[in-house]
Amino acid sequence: MSSLAIASEFIRSSDELRAVLEVTQIVNKSLDSSPQTSPETRDRCVLLVVSHKDDWDLTEEGCLFVCKHRWMRSTSTGVAGANAHPPRSDELDIQKVLPIYGEFAVAMSQTKREILELRSSIVNSAVTAPKSVLEQPRSVITLNITPAEGLAHDNGTPLTFAAEDVEGLKQLLSECKSLKEASELDGSEVVNLAQSTTHFNWIKPYFSKKTTIAALTSVPQDLRQVNQPLLDRLSPSCAGHMGDDHADVRVMRDDWIRVQAKEASRRGKQSLTIRLGTFNVNGKMPTQDLSSWVQGNVQNKVNDPSAEPKSASTPSLPPLAKVSPLVLTRNPFDWIIRRQSSKTKVHEVPVKEDPLARVDEEHPDDPDMLVFGFQELDLSTEALLYSTSNTREDAWCHAIFASLGEKATNYDKLASKQLVGMLIIVIVKRSLKPCFGDVKTSMTGAGILGVLGNKGGTAIRVSFTPPRPPSTLDWTSSNSVNQPGPTTLTFVNAHLAAFDEMVDKRNSDFHDLSRRLTFENSAYSNSSLKEHSEEKSDVVDHVATQTIGLNPPLNVYEGDAVFWMGDLNYRVDVQDHEMRRTLRNEEWETRDKFDALLCFDQLKKAIHSKKAFFGFQECQISHMPTYRFSPGLMMDKLGYDLKRKPAWTDRILYMHGSGCQITPGSYTGHPQITLSDHRPVSAYCTVQVDLYDLDEHRVNIVKRFNEVSHLDSESDKGGLKIEETLIDFGQIHYGKSVERRLVIRNIGKSPRAFRFVPVQLDSPIHPEWIQIHPMTGILLGEETTEILLQADVNDSNAQHLNSGDKDLDGTLILHTMLGKDHFVSLSAEYQRTCFANKLSWLTRLRGPIRSFKHAADLLPESHSRNAPKEIIRLVNWLMTNNATSEQIFMETGKEDVIDIIRECLDTGDEFPYSPQTSDTQTRLAFASTLLRLLNSLPEAVIPSHLHPRCLEMSNRDEAFEVLDELHPAAVNVWISVTAFLHFVSQSLKEEQVRRIASVLAPILLRDDITSAALPIPPNEKSKFLMYFME
Amino acid sequence: MSKQFQFKLVLLGESAVGKSSLVLRFVKDQFDDYRESTIGAAFLTQTVTLDDQTTVKFEIWDTAGQERYKSLAPMYYRNANCAVVVYDITQSASLEKARTWIRELQRQADPSIVIALCGNKLDLAARRQVSQEEAKKYAEEEGLMWTETSAKTGEGVTEIFTEIAKKLPLTAPSAARAGARTGGPATRTGVDLNRQSGSAPGQPDACNC
């Protein structure tokens, strides 16, 4: 291909190629102190004059691009030198871009330079050069190019090139001249290309490729973005209204490259264990044994490696499942259903995963890292003003090592950082110390005046490179990792604003620290970028550097995982006396009690409402509040200071990316360490670090990049094709999801990106009864993918669907980025259900719900039934049935039988099960159906606002008074259900009755999770129900 | 100095009258005998040059003609500066459909929208069901531009787009210059250059009437 053809391909469609000239670069002699002469000191370049007309105001700007041909890389890993002359590829690499304005100038001089061995010219073949005065055989013209900002920037020397093609040169000169005249910029103005949004913005896309590869290889993605659905990171878009597709495509592309490259490079995982602790020491010195906090109870672990460190005096609980920050949204009674159904379902044999190889196999039970955060290390005013002394750090460090006992010799301090009272210490196993590197620290004051260090944070960022796997492992030679890549871990220790009402300040402190705790970014300076760039260029990549602003500092999220601990000072929005009373309540199961209180925890609420710490996770809290203890007389029975409401102020949170799974082990307080007014908190967790080869990962990134590098070009060849655009789900029922697959094929050769868009900006992308996975994607040329469409009717959408048209339809719009919108028509026939409706609506149905057509069919409210027929049918059947009640409500019936019963309720058909049966399974199924129907009601039979009244009732007669407040339908449901329970209770032992009450009470008196009031204890609910059962 | 303007154009009309073929002919000067039905909306651009060195860039939304997707059409014709409503001269029912579209545009679209009625498949004039007189009379009554085209032979295709370009209010670029780089669409009367904006451009400009 000729340079002209290559250059034409290279230029974006929005820009115009004005001139092309092949030249040879001459490195300025004044810099050339090395003995090198030719030919390394010069290289062949292509100069392009490119112009761009602004879409907005039609002004024109021009730039001179200095490019080099990219050489084909030989298959060996060696870098092709300029001397080797491997075959030239049809791609150009930009070396430099010179905007044409200001002092930009091209000076020309004619010199005979026979010593230059110029290769035969294959210049601008489109131009048949006429004879020119300038054109003399073998003569060479020297070009001196002055950049727009003058010569001050480039060491005072212009770029110098030698050119042979006189016609091309003439064209280049005239185009440069006219573009400079067209430039609107003042001669004295200097445009900062990195920051300007008005001038030369159009050249940025030319750099995106080069800079992105560098960024993708060396800068980890921000975890806050990694954990956000991709669709949420794209610009708003809808039918007929494209968003910023160019920018969106880049976001999608980068995400895709990172995920794909990491998956391709991953050779396995190893587990790194970390013990974390946070302790507000209230200015005290270490006068107590800290071993339970520092290393947990090690004795247990020696005997039983699976046992988690537990402290003897805290309530001990089974190992904790991973808890999402959205835990607040779950239905608190899901566990009832789960508990019941798990008994009858076929027990799945748990898939025993091979335990991950430990990074340290010699002492696998000891944590590999110990990270401790302290607050209020030193409360003296001197410390605040001149925090220079680290005597306290030494004392606490010493205490930590002392607490490690004989294991202390296995550990070394890696790093620490102190700001006034805040200290963070990272200790690692001595044997692993060489694996840790790139240690960076940071600190930020957020206290008085927003800067002083009485509040704020200190942070440490380390990279961990797994040790080379020993040969005993199953890494075969073909699977070996030559140069393992690092995993970056960041630890933040923070102390946020105090006092109950300062929650907004705490939230803003968090954001302030997130912004201001930064680490120097050394990634670029010693980076892969230079080592691995395909040719070492003599031309400094000056503009590119300016354009993207290299070396921005790294924030705490730019790594593989971040742990955030400290005295975060968040309190519990519950009345003081309620808090203490609930903590003391021994009849309320500890975990459920804490769950109920933690619904009002300010930190949980901040995470849930995205006000602060959004995206962070925390283990289940199963320990008592760690604040505030009083040594004196002013304390309650549990030892908490009477002047301060108890709270979980001391917390350990974490966030991780896709490649760095964190499995929490334990999370506990240490009440036996009483030296401070806070109790220390510790957490133990396992981090799965990726085992990958650094070089291979770079290669994979480049490979993936090249696969999708043309994603943002507006090529209209081919495109996406949807195999079937009419998707019929058939009949859809409550509780039974129906799946369909949308097959998308890329019939073109170029990669394509797609996303679903809504009809209008503020409308949902899909109907409420549909789920789509995934919502965005990238398809390489001729690739096919399937998108899962799931129709799902559940408690959250059934109520709405029940009152609407039974013929459901909708249109999905799949938008090809920079291209076509595809329509997909959805249809389904909804089968109405009596589940998940309000009682007051069910009683207005004339017949079974399936015969309901539209709102006009409803009975007037004055004529509504006494109780929903469906519930009465279930209760009647159960009352008539004589089978044993031994396990009733304690075990779930068979799912298929439950489905048949529910279908009969919906259709009005007779149950195919006679009440005369003595089959206990059928009885259990009827009881389960009743339980589920009651649990699906949008509002509990006794709504949560009446629960406090239930607490006050002390006998059966009083309890009946509460019923006066209920809707008539609810009264009748309550009466008939409790009548049945009363009937059942007569044949059961008191213990069994109590258990039945404990299952039904949380359903009949279900809490409203949106309620601002603390729920009443479960034992009180049971007590209330029992008045009606006995 | 040349001037460039940008307008949003939408194609409407019954299924299988040749909307996509017209666009394909206009944008790429190609024709497919067997084109699949458009299920969605395709976005294309093409520039026409007028006599006085003025260029008009059309952002074209080629919409699905099937009745099933009719409710989505307003999303594509909102903010449009011009619409080409296509019928098939061999199918009289398609002109009826075109009338429906035109009524909808007159009622719902931007009041300044330029509407062209276009009878396609002129190469099949032997099977003509819609007479020139009938269509032309209707167009005159409604104040529409009208022409007949053949996407297959290319007859009349470029012409209709050029005629539309001439009809559009071309504001002098210098008038829209001040603060333009940072300004929103409000500063650029009659020129919809900001397809990201949800606001309605294309308000008639007094000086261009």
Give the key terms.
heterodimer, A: alpha+beta, PH-domain like, Immunoglobulin-like, 7-stranded antiparallel beta sheet, 27 helices, 23% strand, B: 209 residues, alpha/beta, Rossmann fold, 6-stranded mixed beta sheet, 5 helices, disordered C terminus
Helices and strands in order:
The complex is a heterodimer of chains A (1030) and B (209).
Chain A: H1 3-10, E1 15-26, E2 42-53, E3 60-71, E4 88-99, E5 105-111, E6 140-146, E7 159-163, H2 166-182, H3 204-218, H4 223-226, H5 245-265, E8 266-280, H6 291-295, H7 298-303, H8 334-344, E9 357-358, E10 369-375, H9 381-385, H10 391-403, E11 411-419, E12 422-429, E13 436-445, E14 456-464, E15 487-495, H11 503-516, E16 518-519, H12 528-532, H13 542-548, E17 554-555, E18 561-567, H14 576-584, H15 590-598, H16 602-608, E19 650-656, E20 662-669, E21 681-692, H17 694-708, E22 720-722, E23 726-732, E24 738-746, E25 752-757, E26 770-773, E27 776-779, E28 784-791, H18 798-802, E29 807-816, E30 821-830, H19 839-842, H20 869-880, H21 895-907, H22 920-936, H23 947-952, H24 956-963, H25 968-985, H26 990-1004, H27 1018-1029
Parallel strand pairs in A: 8-9, 8-10, 15-18, 23-30
Antiparallel strand pairs in A: 1-2, 1-7, 2-3, 3-4, 5-6, 6-7, 8-21, 10-12, 11-12, 13-14, 14-15, 16-17, 18-19, 20-21, 22-24, 24-28, 25-27, 25-29, 26-28, 29-30
Helix pairs in contact in A: 3-17, 5-17, 20-22, 20-25, 21-22, 25-26, 26-27
Chain B: E1 3-13, H1 19-28, E2 40-49, E3 54-63, H2 73-77, E4 82-88, H3 92-108, E5 114-120, H4 132-142, E6 145-148, H5 157-167
Parallel strand pairs in B: 1-3, 1-4, 4-5, 5-6
Antiparallel strand pairs in B: 2-3
Structural commentary:
The complex is a heterodimer of chains A (1030) and B (209). By secondary structure, chain A is of the alpha+beta class. In chain A, 27% of the residues lie in helices and 23% in strands. Chain A contains 27 helices and 30 strands. In chain A, the strands form six sheets. Chain A has a seven-stranded antiparallel beta sheet with strand order 4-3-2-1-7-6-5. In chain A, strands 8, 9, 10, 11, 12, 20 and 21 form a seven-stranded mixed beta sheet that branches. Chain A is globular, with a radius of gyration of 36 Å. Chain A starts with a helix and ends with a helix. In chain A, 40% of the residues are buried. With 209 residues, chain B is an alpha/beta fold. Chain B has a single domain, classed as Rossmann fold (3-Layer(aba) Sandwich), CATH 3.40.50. Helices cover 26% and strands 23% of the residues of chain B. The radius of gyration of chain B is 17 Å and the shape is globular. The C terminus of chain B is likely disordered. The interface between A and B is medium-sized, with 30 and 31 residues.
